[in-house]
Design goal:
Rossmann fold; 44% helix; single chain; 266 residues; 7 strands
Length: 266
C-alpha cells in the first residue's frame, strides 16, 4: 500500500472497534502514526502496535477531551489529521425500545402507531447528542487549537451518516448527524485560510456494533434497500476517509462523500 500519510500524526476517536478501528488501521497502513481515542484505552491500544497509542477519552466531556489532546501533543508532537468517528446511535430513554416493539406489533395490527418522539425523554435525547454532536465539536476544537499553534494546516474528517440526510433512523441520531454535516461545512469555510480542510464521509448501513441491537428483519430490510443488497464493511468506509485525510484529497473541503451502496443518491 502507498504511504500517502507518511510522517502524518492522526487522531481517530471511537477507535477501539467497528469503523473507528478500521480507519485507524488504514491510516497506519498509509504511514500515519495514530492516536486511538476511546473510552476503553486498553481496547484502543490493542488495535495497533507501538508507535501507535491508545488514549482514554470521553468525547462528551471537555476536560477529558482536552486532557487527551494534551497527551497527543506530548506523545506525537502534534496532530495533522483528526477523524471524528465516535458516535452513539441510541441511549437509554430515547424511546427506541418502544419504537421497535410497536413496529413488530404493527405487522399484525396496522392501527398501531410506531412512535419515538412521544417516548423520547431528555436523557435519551441528550445522551445521543452529547457524544455524536458535542463530541465532534469538542474534539475538532481541541485539534484546531493544536493545528493553529503548529501553523502547518491539517485535515479533519467527520463521520456523518446518510441518516442525517434521509431522516431514516432514531430521531436524536438523525438530528445529531445532520448537525455534524452543517458543522463540517461551516468549519470548512472558517478554517480554509489556515490550510485546514474539513470534510465528511456519510456511511450507509455498516456492519458495526451500532447495528448489533437491531432486529434481524430490520437489518435485512436495510440491506435490501441498497443496490448492492448488503451492508458495508468498515474497511470500505476507511478507504474514503484515507482519501480525504491525505494529499489525494487536497482540493476537497466542505465535501460530503457518500458511501452507501446506492441506497439513495444525493
Amino acid at each position: 500500500m502507498m504511504q500517502r500519510l507518511k510522517g502524518k500524526r492522526a487522531v481517530v476517536t471511537g477507535a477501539a472497534q467497528g469503523i473507528g478501528a478500521s480507519i485507524a488501521r488504514r491510516l497506519a497502513a498509509e504511514g500515519a502514526t495514530v492516536a486511538l481515542l476511546d473510552l476503553d484505552a486498553a481496547a484502543a491500544g490493542a488495535v495497533l502496535p507501538a508507535p501507535h497509542v491508545g488514549i482514554a477519552c470521553n468525547v462528551a466531556d471537555t476536560e477529558s477531551v482536552d486532557r487527551a489532546f494534551a497527551q497527543v501533543k506530548e506523545m506525537l508532537g502534534g496532530v495533522d489529521v483528526l477523524v471524528n468517528n465516535a458516535g452513539r446511535g441510541s441511549a437509554p430513554g430515547d424511546g427506541m425500545d418502544r419504537y421497535y416493539a410497536a413496529q413488530a406489533e404493527r405487522a399484525t395490527n396496522p392501527a398501531v402507531h410506531v412512535d419515538q418522539t412521544i417516548h423520547c425523554e431528555d436523557a435519551g435525547w441528550s445522551g445521543v447528542l452529547a457524544v455524536t454532536l458535542d463530541g465532534t465539536f469538542k474534539c475538532s476544537r481541541a485539534a484546531v487549537r493544536l493545528m493553529a499553534e503548529q501553523g502547518t494546516g491539517g485535515a479533519i474528517v467527520n463521520i456523518g451518516s446518510t441518516a442525517g440526510v434521509k431522516g431514516d433512523g432514531p430521531i436524536p441520531y438523525c438530528a445529531a448527524k445532520a448537525a455534524v454535516l452543517g458543522m463540517t461545512r461551516a468549519m470548512a469555510r472558517e478554517l480554509a485560510d489556515r490550510g485546514i480542510r474539513v470534510n465528511a464521509v456519510n456511511p450507509g448501513a455498516t456492519e458495526t456494533p451500532i447495528y448489533a441491537p437491531l432486529p434481524v428483519e430490520v437489518k435485512e430490510a436495510i440491506a435490501a434497500d441498497s443496490l448492492m443488497k448488503r451492508l458495508a464493511h468498515p474497511d470500505e468506509i476507511a478507504g474514503a476517509v484515507a482519501f480525504l485525510a491525505g494529499d489525494d484529497g487536497s482540493f476537497a473541503t466542505g465535501s460530503i462523500v457518500t458511501v452507501n451502496g446506492g441506497a439513495w443518491f444525493d
